[in-house]
Amino acid sequence: MDFQKEYTATDKKIKKRVRQDKRKWADDLMKKAEEAAATHNMRELYKNTILAIGRKYGNNQPIRNRIGVLPTAAEQHLERSREHYEDLLKDLNPKNEEK
Asked: Same domain for 43 and 65?
């Protein structure tokens, strides 16, 4: 039972330290962003802002065709992307055929 209390106390200390480190990291990041904004360094400002909000990059996944198969050739991928976005645009802008 003594080990359980020791484990719990150590766990609380570790979690507290992690929260402190995360706050310090975020504060430092925002200071860098403020400095970049003051000097009109938009690249650094954008980079620090994106890091702070946690945006992820590189989520390019192929779009499956209507049967559910992934396209293998580049031309197939481009064709399927074109079809996919045309379908999306049709859904957003339905044509009134009763004109």
From this structure: no
* Diameter over CA atoms, the chain: 81
pLDDT per residue as tens, the chain (99 positions):
788 999 999 999 999 999 999 999 999 999 999 999 999 999 999 888 888 887 766 666 777 777 888 877 888 878 888 888 888 788 776 665 444
Q: How many CB atoms are closer than 10 A to CB 33?
A: 20
Q: Which pair of tokens denotes residue 80?
A: 């399927």
Query: Rounded to an integer, what distance in angstroms lies between the CA atom of residue 18 and that of residue 28?
Result: 15
Token digits of residue 30? 């925002």
4 in any annotated domain: no
Domain that holds residue 29: 9-53
SS3 (DSSP) at 97: coil
Q: Which pair of tokens denotes residue 31? A: 């200071």
Distance of CA 61 to the CA centre of its chain: 14
